[in-house]
Amino acid sequence: MITYLKLKAYGKINLALDVLRKREDGYHDVRMIMQTVGIYDQIELHRTVKPGIAVETNLSYLPVNENNLVHQAAKLLMDGARIQDGIHIQLKKFLPVSAGMAGGSSDAAAVLFGVNKMFRLGLSKEQLMEQGVKIGADVPYCILRGTALSEGIGEKLTPLPPMPQCHLVIAKPGINVSTRYVYENLQADALRPEQHPDINGMVDAIRQQDLIQVAGKLGNVLETVTAKKYPVIEEIKDVMRKKGALNALMSGSGPTVFGLFTELGQAKAAYEELRYGPSSDLAKQAYLTSFFHAQQS
Ligand code: ATP
User: Fold this and answer.
1) CA angle, 31 as apex, 73 and 211 as ends, to 5°?
2) pTM tops 0.85
3) Is there a catalytic annotation at residue 156?
């Protein structure tokens, strides 16, 4: 019997994000290039004789009740399989919250994976992904991981060849952006054609393993809302480009910004500038990392 599991819930960035239309159910149809990155939350699962789901986290402002996505993930599978035992979930957040890095979705994905394993539910990865979309549009991708094209509301996934490796600097300004606010304020119909990223072109560039072309095609329509409202986003992108980034972009609905670097020295210099240097007032959190490709195990 498995009584304990330790899991890593990796964050993602969007190398490209386009919004096609608003649907009648309130969701938006999107086309996104997703990429897992090397920063993660740590999740520990303890099987308990006492029934129920208990959540504990290192961030006092996060909910520990059914509003936490890890709680929802455990409940979805445990209720479905009529599990009698309980579970204690310890969540250590390292990913920035409300940041456009799918932290909550990735935590939920890791718990779905872990509960399936702990209670020997026998669900396939595809079945876990089908369950996951009930919690959030990005959850199926967080189960899949790697480089992928994401369509529909985010649940239609096409795996792509792994991105050529490079160095990644990620910085989050000290503002919180609600995903809902950004989508509600996006005027998708009013966007000029050049404001839409060339998703098909990026897919081709990834298939050709051409990092320079990928970098040239970074684009996110949600910047028209978030970066317009918060100039700090462009300021961080400028710092990264001045330090040698091939290019920089806001991830998801923001406000997190990432820059792609071929030279480790330049990536380190950008990271240090944003973390400790003259630009440290722009970024509340900064990370130096790379793309992540391994599967959940
Ligand atoms: P996305 O990239 O999918 O838009 P995000 O990075 O913008 O995600 P998250 O950090 O995933 O945002 O979630 C932020 C919101 O979700 C907060 O309001 C927070 O209270 C709630 N939440 C629920 N569960 C979690 C969790 N496990 N981790 C972080 N936030 C959570």
Assistant:
1) 105
2) yes
3) no
